[in-house]
Design brief:
With 72 residues, the chain is mainly α. The protein has one domain. The protein has five helices and no strands. Helix 2 runs antiparallel to helix 4. The model has no long low-confidence stretch (mean pLDDT 94).
């Protein structure tokens, strides 16, 4: 799963959100910055998704890029 680019753009300048992600993940500020820049899979862990969703007031559907359906 990938976070939508427009959500990443909101996250980039939000120092309060960065701090919340740092607390939940135990990561450094530099790591959180890097995760956002690279749309890292760490941003999709349950605790971090909850923090992002609550802070920005978005649902899962609004946070993530749609997943392509595979037809068998």
């Amino acid at each position: 799963m990938k976070i939508k680019e427009e959500v990443l753009n909101k996250m980039r300048g939000d120092n309060e959100l960065h701090a919340k992600i740092m607390i939940v993940s135990g990561a450094s500020s530099a790591s959180v910055y890097r995760w956002i820049q690279k749309n890292n899979v760490m941003l999709t862990t349950a605790g971090i998704v909850r923090v992002i969703s609550d802070h920005l007031g978005l649902t899962s559907e609004e946070l993530f890029e749609p997943v392509a359906k595979i037809q068998l």
